[in-house]
Design goal:
By secondary structure, this protein is an alpha+beta fold. The chain folds into 2 domains: 4-100, Orthogonal Bundle (Helix Hairpins); 117-420, BirA Bifunctional Protein, domain 2 (2-Layer Sandwich). It contains 12 helices and 17 strands. It is elongated and about 105 Å long.
Amino acid sequence: MHDVKAIRADPGAFDAALSRRGLAGAAAQLLSHDEARRAALAAVQEKQARRNAIARDIGQAKKAGADTAALETEALTLREEIAAREADAEAAEARLAHALERLPNRLDAEVPDGPDETANVVLHMHGTPRPADGMRQHFDLGEAMGLMEFGRAAKLAGSRFTVLIGALARLERALGQFMLDRHTQANGYTEVAPPLLVNDATMYGTGQLPKFADDLFRTTDGRWLVPTAEVPLTNLVAGEILDPAALPMRMTALTPCFRAEAGSAGRDVRGMLRQHQFWKVELVSITTPEQSADEHERMTRCAEGILTELGLTWRRVLLCSGDTGFAAARTHDLEVWLPGQGAWREISSCSNCRDFQARRMAARYRPAGGKGTEFVHTLNGSGVAVGRALIAVLETFQNDDGSVTVPEVLRPYMGGVDRIG
């Protein structure tokens, strides 16, 4: 959410910022709604002042035995006019909120301009990509082992679901536990087990509603299945005023995630890359504005450390203006090399949302020694997507005989098993 006072102070700067998102001239409409709201409120205050004066005049007139009929008629008219102008102010406020809540966050100055992922900038790479020649994709490997089934999953739930069996089911569990242990024991995150069903206000707070309702699953009682643990973790501080001594707050969760994938028809149909249900380890930080840039770098390095320990080849990418998500001011994507596909695929996104989500959630902190409160900054990142890590392990460590070598860091979670298949 944006600060309408800041827009009013410099509408040109606001328009310039959103033009990088492909949105031109947004300030004029916002300020029109804001002016209507303020004019209605000013009229309410003026008429309330007159009504108060009339009340005093009526009291004095009655004491003097004078006729108060005209004053009482004016007071009744004012009451009706005040109600009408309050309704005008509420309507203008609703129009302003409706327009504001659909506008994306401003981008950091360092974010490169560009229409889509083709303009993203690779910042650095770790490891050497394994040649793709002769490499099999994860679904070929898994199906050949008899441990990954898509036909039976479709029978149970439809497309974009997978059944994992035996060692692959255990490998998926091992990946999630390994990531969670690293983030809690080495990276300073506190484990949280949040609800997987949330209400409208929670989805609104992190920016999923109202814009992305079609990408979500909703229950018959009006709750939403979480698309990522970012939603409940970030909203834990909604409506609160935090002690700066408690910041940064660092939280992590291993949860299933549910996404409708409404806009992905025909994309990644085979395999596990784009699923309606998948596991992910999420990282969330709540910080002060002064901390957030350093916290973004720290969070990204924590996610990178997972990929490095797994022995995967990865690269960090700075997303351009046309590829940065709705709530983010700056995003680092981590892409992993999949030799079966012969392609880089995103496995983590780490985003600094600045105060954009905090304004929607009314999440503040009280600066030490200062007066009043300020909005916190929120950050979120995948630490990392478990299903995609499973894909990367299968394709990276496949052997000529169709088996897969288990990365050393996962073997304690696999009961010592060092090879699958």
